Amino acid sequence: MARDLINKGLQDINEYQRVLDGNKRYVEKKTAENPNYFTKLAEGQQPRFLLIGCSDSRAPPNEITETDPGEIFIHRNIANLVIPTDMNMNCVIQYAVEQLRVKNIIVMGHTFCGGIKAAMRQESVGGLLDLWLNTIKLTYEKNQKILDQIINEDEKITCLSCFSIREQVLNLWRNPIIQKSWNSGHPIMIHGWLFRVETGVVEQLSLDEQFPIELSNIFNLNFKTEDIPTQKRKQTRYSKIQTILEQNFNQNGDQEEFFTTIQRRLSKQQSELDDEQSEEQSQDSHQVKQFEDTQLGDILEKQQLQEK
């Protein structure tokens, strides 16, 4: 018995040392490719993406997207949940949006997720974990009729993962930090990804909520301080995005259907805005132009992301 414990301890020490040795090889490899690699990295970060992923060790964001340190700002928790009252999460979102000025937020779930699987069962996993998993259980309850028709457990876990990702995307659109960013002229695009552990492939989920066109009035906030008057800002936003969509997104497949839906909703929004024409006529033209340029640039970035 004692010998078994000693052997187990030695194995653990060897595994720990293997990780440290891996760091040495990593440094040697990077500096051989570029002697100034880490010096440059120390100068700062300018990530274009915030990725909210699961803590599962099989879903490392940088590795599966072939991105380098500094390209993706990452927050991970069990089952990639966006809980509105999670202070840790909200601090990450605020820093990413207001300080790093990211352009895209990605919620990435995955197949064979242990958190999703545990939430589908009635057995307690203990302590705070049960409270955390209640968020997934609410999604399960909401979609139970569909999920109960799926016999295969792995397929059911995948389906619930997709439903959960959608809910997290909605929670992001409802977040005041995201809404304020849009209102101040810095639009953030939000995406739902499913990483298939069994194939290594990332699937971008087709969600209507990838664009904040019809946010419920219950969650739609009005902000007192605005750089560009509300009416002018909304008119600029929807008319410019409409133009870009018409010119650049005439593609076929699911993507075409997705953007057709956006165009339809944009037309509806523009019609409503026309009916509520504001009396605000004297606007700072420089501010308006700056806002328009920001919108156009960000939509073109969205196009490039879709093409990749």
Explain what this protein looks like in three dimensions.
The termini are far apart. A 5-stranded mixed β-sheet has the order 2-1-3-4-5. It is α/β, with parallel strands linked by helices and 308 residues long. It is 57% helix and 9% strand. The chain is globular, with a radius of gyration of 23 Å. Helix 10 packs antiparallel against helix 11 (254-275) and helix 10 runs parallel beside helix 12 (285-307).
Topology (SSEs and partners):
Layout: H1 2-33, H2 37-41, E1 49-54, H3 61-65, E2 72-77, H4 87-99, E3 104-110, H5 114-119, H6 127-142, H7 144-147, H8 153-174, H9 176-183, E4 189-195, E5 202-204, H10 230-248, H11 254-275, H12 285-307
Parallel strand pairs: 1-2, 1-3, 3-4
Antiparallel strand pairs: 4-5
Helix pairs in contact: 10-11, 10-12
Compact overview of the structure:
By secondary structure, the chain is α/β, with parallel strands linked by helices.
- Count, helices: 12
Radius of gyration: 23 Å
Would you identify the regions where 5 or more consecutive residues have pLDDT less than 50?
279-285
Number of strands: 5
Strand order, biggest sheet? Answer: 2-1-3-4-5
Query: What string, H for helix and E for strand, traces the elements in order?
Result: HHEHEHEHHHHHEEHHH
Average residue pLDDT: 81
Largest sheet: number of strands, sense, barrel closure = 5 strands, mixed
SS class: alpha/beta
- The percent of residues in helical segments reads 55-70%
Shape: globular
In percent, how much strand structure appears in the residues? Answer: 5-15%
Beginning-to-end CA distance, first to last residue: 56 Å
